[in-house]
Amino acid sequence: MELQAVLMAAGGGSRMMDLTYNTPKPLLPVGNRPLIWYPLNLLEKVGFEEVIVITTKEVQKALSTDQRLKTDVKMRLDVVCIQEEADMGTADALRHIQQKIKTDILVVSCDLITDVALHEVVDLFRAHSATLSMLMSKVHEFTETVPGQKGKKKAGEQRDFVGVDVTGKRLLFMANEADLDEGLVLRKSIMRKHPRMLIKTGLLDAHLYCLKRSVVDFLVHNKSVTSIRGELVPYLVRKQFSKTLNSQNATEDSERNQKQQDAHHNLELLSTSKDEALLQLARERSCWNDHRGDMSEAYHGGKLRCYVHIMEEGMCYRVNTLAAYIEANRVVPKLFEDPPIHPAAVVSERSLVGSDSIIGQLCHISDRTSIKRSNVGTSTIIKEKVKITNSIIMNGVTIEEGCNIQGSVICNNAVIGRGADIKYCLVGSGQRVEPEAERTNEVIVGSDQLMEI
Amino acid sequence: MSMLVTEEDEKKQEIIRAKGEGKELTKEEKQRLRKEKKQHKKNKKDDRGPPEKEKEKASVPAPSKPATQSPAHKAAPVPVNASASESPVAAEKPAKSKAELRADRRARQDSERASKPGKKEVGQQSTSSKPKATPSELQPVVKRLPEHVQVDDPAALKKLAKKLERQQVPLRSDYGYKVSLFSHLHQYSRKNPPTQQISIPVTAIHPSIVRLGLQYSQGIIAGSNARSVALLHAFKQVIQDYSTPPNEELSRDLVNKLSPYISFLSQCRPLSASMGNAIKYIKKEISNIPNQCKEEEAKRRLQECIDSYINEKIILASQAISKYAIEKISDGDVILVYGCSSLVNHILCEAFEKQRKFRVIVVDSRPRLEGREALRRLVKKGIRCTYVLISALSYILPEVSKVFLGAHALLANGYVMSRVGTSQIALVAKAYNVPVLVCCETYKFCERVQTDSFVSNELDDPDDLIVTRNGKTHLENWQTVKSLGLLNLVYDVTPPDFVDLVITDLGMIPCTSVPVVLRVKNVDQ
């Protein structure tokens, strides 16, 4: 077997608590399908037959009961539950399932919606015998108004600085703005080996990683690494250029030296394979080099290599913020050839459903309602004379007569009283909006949720 | 009729006896058997009435005629096989059904050929008649053209597509406009890798073979020796992970397992002559494993065979060649090399270590610019080098005292197949009376005969010729210009008149002795 797929679905959705306080993130409906369906679909299309899903008990229950998921997803899902309270990072989760991992792994996050040709990422991993191969995409500006945002856009989240070499494939440098105090520090060893480096900031990390098996073993030995993205990936990128065991800085603490040596030693040892001599011979006899202009052999003789595939065009969203959630809902229905109106939905003829809206099954849409550019979830009841524009209605929502909903997100099981006028709001799960209410640009959640931080 | 039957029986029993003993039929025996089979088939056809030739030449498709012919076709072999099946030898069953299948296939092909509306008849006839049943007036032994030089023949393409589908190997499609003289060769693009259509955790093909194929298609492993070593390394891993299915023999099943892998690799990049010889060796070793050998023992033996093959044919051979070659390098020599040949680089490095005083001129050519890598290795060693492009060849040659060339393969008629540009170098060197020495290991000798570079060659990605200078890429949209074709050849052949000496691990031989070496090798095996 070549690769095992691991789907990380235990995250809490900490950046969109308003949406996720009642519904776990993997089950949030996007385009009338649960969010977790998208990475599963990606893996299935490419040919995986089995996925290890790391998630919480709630999601596991839903996975086993959701009819649609069961019929759509034909792969075998090996669900591993972890306690929500344990607050495991992604690397901790990998350590947890270490026994199941027999080959190299492909780690995917549950909030990734993309149509990338996965073979591009995996080919880099295969061809160069890379230790890490990841996917990044150009960031798209979100154009939709986000409910609850007070006027000006927040000054962008912490940027990632990603350094690649001239070919645009080899990953040389990765740091988050938060970790850089005064400025960007580049090691001389990197510049000596790769004098031309392109540093990009407008990239979105898709959280899709191909990792060698030896990395998992390395994680087992180094329990201090908790997060793949936050700690493991920058560590691997840095270690490509670290000095070998022979030469060491004399100024560093000798204790720390020893630990670092051991860690590094482990990684190198674990990544050598048998028949190394033959591979070495083939490489020596081959007239190929990945760089030119200096005297060193291919890859500068380094064993650890990290590669990145940067998507120029195509769709790649990480649904971890409200803005991304809204954007994804806008774009995703165009991907699939599902009929926009589910055959099991009851839509009255006197209503007007725009061509860019989708209606889930078991919906009940009454007369003289107009639905434009919106996504309506399953089991939703919409009474007469309702106008819905540019909104996302989740499952089990009841909307009474005469409402006007614009640019909003209505979560599961909410009830909107008659005649309410909701503009650019987020109505939390299970909330009731009183009749004749007029809300603009508000986040309506329960009072007990307000204390959550 | 009965006489035919018994003769066939005898023949089949002979084949099975020979196979059962595990010894390969020699070439002569195989030819003889083939001749006899063809005679039988010809007699059968004559029995049935109107010969096939009339059908072939018919310009108007006559669907009724082939319809009546094909049942007649099928009827004739069936009674033969039915009577043959009465003979009690159980092991004959596979041989019998093969003959039956072949007859069916021929009947189907004939009917298809006749029903096709006279499309490119003459061209089709000349190429399609070769792999099909030969008219018995010509010599009975037919050399089948390999698939990779028949790309413009739709019948051959269909056959290939069917074979690949059966083996679950993706078919790679050609890219771009092909120059008409080379339209019979494949032309692939690096932007459409062969892995586009296979599932990501590959199931039909071993992962190390997929990795190897990718490395070939992207040029990460390039050069005849490197490709062979990498191929054998991948085969070692395949053998390591192999387990015999129940009711199967390792000696037969493993060879069948390797066939789709080899098809996949040839889809990534056409196989080189050295790779072909290595594969032949491996297959022979596998079929020679005795049946009672345990699986672990057999695998260990095969791994040892591979290791010894690499050791003998590549590593020790290069050491032997260096020893001979260093005798030819004297102090004060100016040696010209072309491109990056691993063997020539090795020789020069060894000579430098043995304190010979010489300098090297590295000649390079676009689009591969492999000479830069050769230059790097030689300069790293400490050898004094000069670097020119091939366009400056005639200016630099008066300084040169010897030319050392590497080879991709040595053909049976003494021609040297090497990187494109080598024949130029040999030609100009001859004009200047500079000795040309070709260094080549014996495992690269191949039995093919070629006198020109058109018949069998390799077309590389045409987009490699596109270059950006001063921010302008003139050839960017070359596909939109209908009258423009980009040609990126990889190999060319040098006639033996331009080569003065071939240095092999068997010694220093003239170019015309290559067929002798081949004959001696065959006798050894």
Automatic annotation (TrEMBL), chain A:
Compartmental location: Cytoplasm, Cytosol
Keywords: Acetylation, Cytoplasm, Initiation factor, Phosphoprotein, Protein biosynthesis
GO BP term (any one): cytoplasmic translational initiation
InterPro entries in UniProt: eIF2B_gamma (IPR051960), LbH_EIF2B3/5 (IPR056764), NTP_transferase_dom (IPR005835), Nucleotide-diphossugar_trans (IPR029044)
Bilayer-spanning residue ranges: none
Gene Ontology molecular function, alphabetical: guanyl-nucleotide exchange factor activity; translation initiation factor activity
Top-rank taxon, per record: Eukaryota
Residues in Nucleotidyl transferase domain copies: 5-141
Domain EIF2B subunit epsilon/gamma LbH residue range list: 346-436
Record-linked Pfam families: LbH_EIF2B, NTP_transferase
GO cellular component: cytosol; eukaryotic translation initiation factor 2B complex
Keyword Transmembrane helix: no
Summary of subunit composition and partner proteins: Component of the translation initiation factor 2B (eIF2B) complex which is a heterodecamer of two sets of five different subunits: alpha, beta, gamma, delta and epsilon. Subunits alpha, beta and delta comprise a regulatory subcomplex and subunits epsilon and gamma comprise a catalytic subcomplex. Within the complex, the hexameric regulatory complex resides at the center, with the two heterodimeric catalytic subcomplexes bound on opposite sides.
Function (record text): Acts as a component of the translation initiation factor 2B (eIF2B) complex, which catalyzes the exchange of GDP for GTP on the eukaryotic initiation factor 2 (eIF2) complex gamma subunit. Its guanine nucleotide exchange factor activity is repressed when bound to eIF2 complex phosphorylated on the alpha subunit, thereby limiting the amount of methionyl-initiator methionine tRNA available to the ribosome and consequently global translation is repressed.
Family, as annotated: Belongs to the eIF-2B gamma/epsilon subunits family.
UniProt protein name: Translation initiation factor eIF2B subunit gamma
TrEMBL record, chain B:
GO cellular component annotations of the record: cytosol; eukaryotic translation initiation factor 2B complex
Biased composition (Basic and acidic residues): 9-31, 44-58, 93-122
Cell compartments where the protein resides: Cytoplasm, Cytosol
Keyword DNA-binding: no
GO molecular-function terms, A-Z: guanyl-nucleotide exchange factor activity; translation initiation factor activity
Region named Disordered: 1-150
The protein's assembly and partners: Component of the translation initiation factor 2B (eIF2B) complex which is a heterodecamer of two sets of five different subunits: alpha, beta, gamma, delta and epsilon. Subunits alpha, beta and delta comprise a regulatory subcomplex and subunits epsilon and gamma comprise a catalytic subcomplex. Within the complex, the hexameric regulatory complex resides at the center, with the two heterodimeric catalytic subcomplexes bound on opposite sides.
Record function comment: Acts as a component of the translation initiation factor 2B (eIF2B) complex, which catalyzes the exchange of GDP for GTP on eukaryotic initiation factor 2 (eIF2) gamma subunit. Its guanine nucleotide exchange factor activity is repressed when bound to eIF2 complex phosphorylated on the alpha subunit, thereby limiting the amount of methionyl-initiator methionine tRNA available to the ribosome and consequently global translation is repressed.
The protein, known as: Translation initiation factor eIF2B subunit delta
Lineage: Eukaryota, Metazoa, Chordata, Craniata, Vertebrata
